[in-house]
Design goal:
The complex is a heterotrimer. Chain A is mainly alpha-helical. In chain A, α1 packs antiparallel against α11 and α2 runs parallel beside α4. Chain B has a two-stranded antiparallel ribbon with strand order 1-2. Chain B is mostly helical. The radius of gyration of chain B is 20 Å and the shape is globular. Chain B is built from 14 helices and 2 strands; from the N terminus they run αααααααββααααααα. The two termini of chain B are 29 Å apart. In chain B, α4 crosses α13, α5 packs antiparallel against α6 and α5 crosses α12. Chain C folds into 3 domains: 231 residues, P-loop containing nucleotide triphosphate hydrolases (Rossmann fold); 152 residues, 3-Layer(aba) Sandwich (Rossmann fold), CATH 3.40.50.300; 83 residues, no CATH class. Chain C has a 6-stranded mixed sheet with strand order 6-7-8-3-9-10, sandwiched between helices. In chain C, strands 16-17-18-13-19-20 form a 6-stranded mixed sheet, sandwiched between helices. In chain C, β17, α16 and β18 form a beta-alpha-beta unit. In chain C, α15 runs parallel beside α16. Chain C starts with 5 loop residues before the first strand and ends in a 5-residue tail after the last helix. The model of chain C has no long low-confidence stretch (mean pLDDT 86). The chains are: A mainly alpha, B mainly alpha, C alpha/beta. The interface between A and B is large, with 46 and 49 residues.
């Protein structure tokens, strides 16, 4: 195994492509957590988004419909989570786990109902590459970054927009205060419930899109385990990224690089049983989390329901 | 009777309707999916009942399925009592199964009196070891066990895939199935005609032991204190980190035992599909049972009925096994909603 | 007759079985400083929470500027020009002072920092409330945080400002500063409501005084006509109880010695700096100081939650510096924590199970948990401390705040009895308790000393310290900067030391 393997441009290119589901889902989770909601249903939402996107693409042949419906499915689950967590004030982890399981089941059942039983699993056409004129001719960077499919550019734009929203707008300030000290936000007349609901719906839509990226840009099919833990990884990336969009992006690229590397190594090191290589990203994720935990400061009200009358 | 259990029964007597309502809702959801898949609802529902109750074999299957669910549900419940979320029951079941199968493959000729306890111990150890890592990380560095246990699930699964398709594979049996363990290491049968192995007795005994630990010992009292308010517990002299680590290891040991029972009692081999989502179901069971041990016991039997029933549904209506998740999650969500409404009313 | 700017009539508010407000009335005239006086639990804060939109009343009417209004949320109150500064500040720690002040009133989608800064600085100039606008609020001292809170209300256009127990965490000098600010606000046209339980302050600064008891108004008087004895009688309904007196009963034996102890927290912030003090048997040593100067750290190193980086702690001459909390409990160190609910209570476990926390290893040496023993002890404690609860098996979380405080205090005293504890560390033990309960706790503390125990009493209430302590040590920036013996107690000298440090002595 030579060192050139590690810096092969096609490896970086693959890493960028593979980072998209993590960036989208991670930003969605980030938005929710900044408002104070801990969403552990994320893995299920990613799976459901993947299922819906695949089935919509399969049934209609149109990728824009697929993306839209996947986003809507995520938004719907976000809505339900908010209903329980914000208005019902139930424990967010419990509700999240229940929704996680529900989404897994719905994803499988929907697939069975729409696709039925077949000998060979059907496929959908992946998203086409879109080369950005001019930029694509840049040395090295051009090939890696600017000859990608549309969701890559969308993900990049999302990170920037999310950063501007959170730190440069009044609504972002209010959202952050709702996640840090909802009592203080409420006292100045901010509607904490509405903010959290909005964050949950918007965040859910992004997570659904993240799921859609899996069949539409990576595999072309849908299987029950398609998410492969990426939802959980996105959850970890929010911590790693210190609840900042550029941190999530960095973490996603790092992780996707390891994932992509595992593929390449598998091609070369035939002697190693494939399962051990497949374990690597998960072990890596644990190590990253341990490191990230030191000094990480979550939004103070994360995971705790806000009850105005319980203030006395 | 503890105040928590009394609360459980009191609420059930007066407010059975959330549970009943949840079941009705779940059945409605199920029926609609059966319809959408082109199946016959009446036949499907009838099939479920027959499969789980209507015959000796069905009853045996229900008891068999209830075993890992009971152990898993109690494992998650005791974890929650101690303030930890053990999402890694699947991985711990698998690692318990791996150690049990590994030992079982080599125990040929050893008498059952030695082989069976040895295999079960191996399972406990396997699960405990798999839970030790997140336990240590939580105790030492405060790292949340939620993520670590989930990642370990995947790692365990890959490991089992490797073993069952590679070095331990039985080419005559199938792609991801290992060679059989020594016959002397099989669990004795409880109801031979019904095909129910004695694992359910072990599960019940383990549940009783956990209950006694929590409510009759100082250690259990301290665990509950830590789970309720670790700051207050610490000021009361309780070694909080040690108790958290203990409860996580205990929880994973119970799951490991379930894995050993599945290998020694049910499959007599290690297979890739050993846990069809038991880990996830255990969480639902623990929450539905209000995080109490008796609640988890009852809930696990109920879920076993659902699982056996849905297996039959798989055969009759062609619905995937994970479809049962929708049922189970729907029931829990309904319950959570009903409780939420009741609290604000 | 001037029309009151706020008029509340017949307000009732219930929380489950508890009636917090029972037909309460209140009027605020324009441009006045109106003190709302009552002991803890009288309903003063609840009434103002109704006015500021936190609670919705179950009955009664509210008129603002003569018009009936329905205040359903803090937003409605803000729109009516009513602003409230709570006892526990509502600031977002990670945001700057400027961001906290403009939160909710940013005036646009994009945050225009310059314009907002301009707006706030205008207010600062007008009312003389200077704060460092670009510092994160959690790094600011309490007195400055209070100014941020006031600026917040002013930025929202408050015409009525409600201050809830504003002087609790302030030194005597800062209190003077606050009163000056209040007078400036009123001169500029605001009306101020001042919630307190301290008669001295009321007689200093208010124009009119309303006394509340048990959720109703008892009397409203002008300051000129008010006498302290009448106010007290109105507050508690009977003649005031004989105040507990602490006689010197020290035996001279040194029970606890803190020797040159320094601490550093996880963020390398210094807590204690070579702090030294002693507590003798039969002595109450009071610790005075502005919150955040090492009080928690001092309690922490004695109780065992914090390990010093240097120095020693000795109990009866034996070093206990590295012992665990459990070992210190066994040696006889008992503790009443500051935030009783957050640090002292196990909400889902029963009252009995809560009561035995800490002494449980000694109570159940075999390792078997005996619920009957716990229940028996709980019955005794419930009777002795008059804890209101359904019974020893009720989940502790169902108790009210005051009863939870009694429970935690009962536990500390139970520990002293069962373990023969000889040192009691108490942080604000009577905060939130009404007068009879406060006197009860004070009496128990004195009894404990008579029996030979020693008490380290940390309290924000200087009056309580002055009443009970044999000696008062002032803590400033992690070290003892001055000690006062009982004969030489001087509140102003103590206050100076608290704020200006040893140079001022």
């Amino acid at each position: 195994m030579s060192w050139e393997l590690l810096v092969d441009p096609s490896l970086f290119r693959l890493a960028v492509t593979m980072s998209v589901p993590l960036v989208l889902a991670g930003c969605g989770e980030l938005l929710m957590e900044r408002s104070g909601l801990l969403n552990v249903a994320i893995e299920g939402m990613v799976t459901l988004g993947a299922s819906v996107a695949f089935l919509a693409g399969f049934a209609t042949g149109r990728t824009d419909t697929a993306l839209l419906l996947a986003a809507l499915s995520g938004a719907a689950v976000g809505l339900v989570l908010a209903a329980y967590a914000v208005f019902g004030r139930r424990d967010q982890v419990t509700v999240g786990l229940a929704l996680y399981v529900l989404c897994l089941g719905l994803a499988s059942l929907s697939y069975r109902v729409v696709v039925g039983v077949r000998l060979t699993p059907p496929r959908v056409a992946p998203l086409p590459e879109v080369a950005l004129p001019g930029l694509e001719r840049l040395v090295l960077v051009g090939e890696v970054l600017f000859r990608q499919h549309a969701l890559v550019y969308a993900a990049g734009a999302l990170v920037l927009l999310l950063h501007l929203f959170l730190f440069r707008t009044a609504w972002g300030l209010r959202l952050r205060s709702a996640g840090e000290n909802p009592a203080a936000a409420d006292a100045v007349g901010i509607d904490v419930a509405a903010l959290r609901l909005g964050a949950s719906v918007a965040g859910g839509a992004l997570i659904g899109l993240g799921g859609a990226a899996l069949p539409l840009t990576l595999t072309g099919t849908f299987t029950e385990g398609i998410a492969g833990g990426r939802g959980w990884i996105a959850l970890m990336l929010v911590i790693f990224g210190r609840w900042a969009p550029h941190g999530v992006l960095l973490g996603a690229l790092l992780f996707a690089y390891v994932e992509a590397l595992q593929f390449k190594v598998a091609l070369v090191a035939k002697a190693v049983p494939p399962q051990f290589l497949q374990m690597l990203p998960y072990a890596f994720a644990i190590l990253v989390l341990i490191r990230a935990y030191r000094g990480a400061e979550a939004p103070e009200a994360l995971g705790r329901p806000y009850d105005r009358e319980a203030r006395a | 009777m503890t105040s928590e259990t009394r609360g459980l029964f009191r609420s059930r007597a007066g407010d059975l309707w959330p549970y009943v309502g949840g079941i009705v809702l779940a059945l409605v959801v199920l029926a609609s999916f059966v319809r959408a898949a082109g199946g016959d609802v009446a036949a499907a529902l009838g099939g479920i009942v027959r499969a789980s109750f209507g015959s000796a074999v069905g009853l045996g299957q229900t008891l068999n399925k209830a075993t890992p669910l009971m152990l898993g549900g109690v494992a998650v419940a005791v974890g929650m009592r101690g303030g930890v979320f053990n999402i890694g029951v699947d991985g711990q079941i698998y690692m318990g199964a791996v150690l049990a199968a590994g030992l079982g493959l080599g125990l040929v000729g050893v008498p059952p009196l030695v082989a069976v306890p040895a295999i079960l111990c191996a399972g406990v150890v396997g699960g405990a070891v798999w839970g030790a890592a997140p336990a240590l990380l939580r105790a030492r560095y405060g790292v949340s066990e939620i993520f670590v246990t989930v990642m370990l699930n995947f790692i365990a699964l890959f490991f089992v895939e490797y073993l069952s398709t590679g070095p331990w594979n039985d080419p005559l049996a199938g792609e991801a199935i290992t060679r059989p363990i020594a016959p002397s290491a099989h669990l004795p049968m409880l109801l031979a005609r019904a095909g129910a192995h004695a694992g359910i007795l072990l599960a019940l005994a383990a549940a009783a032991a956990v209950w006694a630990l929590l409510y009759r010992t100082v250690l259990g009292y301290e665990i509950r204190a830590v789970g309720d308010n670790p700051t207050a517990a610490r000021l009361g002299g309780v070694p909080v980190e040690r108790r958290i680590a203990f409860v996580l290891v205990l929880s994973s040991a119970l799951a490991g035992l379930a894995g050993a029972i599945e290998v020694a009692g049910f499959h007599t081999r290690l297979i890739l599909g050993l846990s069809p989502g038991y880990g996830v179901m255990s969480i639902l069971i623990a929450v539905l049972g209000r995080r109490t041990v008796p609640g988890a016991v009852v809930g696990s039997v109920f879920f076993a009925v659902l699982v056996v029933g849905s297996d039959s549904l798989q055969r009759s209506a062609g619905l995937p096994a994970s479809g049962v998740f929708v049922l189970q999650a729907a029931i829990l969500l309904f319950l959570l909603a009903a409780e939420g409404i009741r609290r604000t009313a | 007759m001037t029309e009151p700017v706020v008029r509340m009539q017949g307000i009732t508010k219930r929380f489950g079985p508890v009636t917090a407000l029972d037909g309460a009335d209140f009027e605020l005239l324009p441009g006045e400083i109106h003190a709302l006086l009552g002991e803890n639990g009288a309903g003063k804060t609840t009434l103002m929470n109704v006015l500021s939109g936190i609670y919705r009343p179950d009955g009664g009417t509210v008129h603002v500027d003569g018009r009936p209004v329905r205040i359903r949320s803090p937003r409605d109150a803000v729109r009516l020009g009513i602003g409230m500064v709570h006892q526990h500040f509502e600031l977002v720690g990670h945001l700057t002072a400027l961001e906290n002040i403009v939160l909710g009133r940013e005036g646009g989608v994009v945050l225009a920092h310059d314009r907002l800064r301009q707006e706030v600085e205008t207010l600062v100039g007008r009312f003389g409330l200077s704060v460092p606008l670009d510092q994160k609020v959690r790094a600011l001292p309490v007195g400055v945080q209070q100014k941020v809170e006031i600026l917040k209300a002013l930025h929202r256009g408050a015409r009525v400002l409600i201050l809830d127990e504003p002087t609790t965490l302030l030194t005597p000098q800062e209190v003077d500063g606050l009163f000056g600010t209040i007078r400036r606000l009123v001169e500029a046209g605001l009306s101020v409501v001042f919630i307190t339980h301290k008669i001295g302050e009321v007689l200093r600064v208010s124009d009119r005084i309303t006394v509340m008891r048990r959720g109703r108004r008892v009397a409203t008087v002008c300051r000129a006509a008010a006498r302290a004895e009448d106010l007290v009688t109105w507050m508690i309904g009977t003649t005031p109880p004989e105040p507990v007196r602490k006689e010197a009963c020290g035996s001279g034996h040194v029970l606890l010695e803190v020797r040159e102890v320094s601490t550093q927290d996880a963020r390398a912030q210094v807590g204690l700096r070579r702090c030294s003090l002693t507590v003798g048997a039969g002595e109450i040593v009071g610790i005075a100081g502005v919150a955040g100067n090492g009080q928690r750290e001092l309690a922490g190193v004695i109780v065992g939650t914090l390990m010093p980086t240097s120095g020693d702690i000795l109990l009866d001459g034996r070093p206990i510096t590295r012992l665990s909390i459990r070992e210190r409990l066994r040696l006889g160190i008992s503790f009443v924590p500051e935030d009783r609910v957050r640090e002292g209570i196990l909400p889902h476990l029963s009252v009995a199970e809560n009561l035995v926390l800490g002494l449980h290893p000694v109570l159940f040496p075999s390792g078997r948990y005996e619920a009957t023993i716990a229940r028996g002890l709980a019955q005794q404690a419930i009777a002795e401390f008059r804890i209101v609860c359904p019974g020893p098996d009720a989940p502790a979380g169902t108790l009210s705040g005051g009863n939870l405080q009694k429970l935690v205090t009962a536990r500390a005293f139970l520990l002293t009895e069962q373990l023969g504890a000889r040192l009691l560390v108490a942080l604000n033990p009577t905060r939130g308790l009404d007068v009879p309960s406060t006197e009860f706790v004070h009496r128990k503390l004195v009894e404990f000393c008579v029996r030979g125990g020693g008490v380290l009493l940390v309290s924000e209430d200087l009056d309580e310290l002055l009443k009970l302590s044999d000696r008062i040590a002032v803590l400033d920036r992690g070290t003892v900067v001055g000690t006062f013996e009982r004969q030489a107690f001087d509140p102003y000298a103590i206050g100076r030391l608290m704020t200006e440090g040893p140079e001022a002595a």
